[in-house]
Amino acid sequence: MPRSLVGRDDLFDLAWRTLGEPGPVLLEGPAGIGKTTLLRALVTEATRAGWSVLTCAPTECETDLPFAALADLLRPLADLVVDLPRPQRVAAEVVLLTGDSDETFDERVVGAATRTLLEAVS
Fold first, then answer.
1. Please, are residues 112 and 74 in contact by the beta-carbon 8 Å criterion?
2. Which of 25, 60, 65, 114 is least enclosed by beta carbons within 10 angstroms?
3. CB atoms within 10 A of CB 1
4. Mind listing the pLDDT tens digit of every residue in the chain (122 residues)?
């Protein structure tokens, strides 16, 4: 268990085991109980274990930036964007701010690009 979670061995172990099972994992609770610290420890352990880990941490000031969190999440996969079908590639480049396009694209194309990129690393 990471040293930053002293006294939380059971919680860390439960969360780690749960991550190994199919399905989503939800960390919830009141502010200040250590959710972020636990999440960081889990991300560190998953990275050490060789998992592909994608994270984002949106902030309140980004609420008017619709793709900011998605861009953070997908940034490690940017090298895979060139292999996407053209509509998905254009949308992904706009989300990642790596391309410039006057084309309009449907948000479903962003979703398709995201899914394709995630499937490429799963």
1. no
2. 60
3. 15
4. 555 676 778 889 999 999 999 888 888 889 888 888 899 999 999 999 999 899 888 788 888 888 899 999 999 999 999 999 999 999 999 999 888 777 777 889 999 999 999 999 87
**What is the distance between the alpha carbons of residues 33 and 28, in angstroms, rounded to a whole number?**
9
CA-nearest of 55, 46, 33, 32 to 2 is: 46
Both tokens assigned to 68? 């900011």
**Which spans in 1-122 are helix H?**
9-19, 35-48, 68-74, 86-96, 107-121
Taken in order 57, 59, 63, 64, the sign of the CA dihedral is negative
**How far are the Cα atoms of 28, 30, 65, 112, 116 from residue 38, in angstroms, in the given order?**
11, 14, 27, 31, 29
> Is residue 71 a contact partner of residue 86, using CB atoms and an 8 Å limit?
no
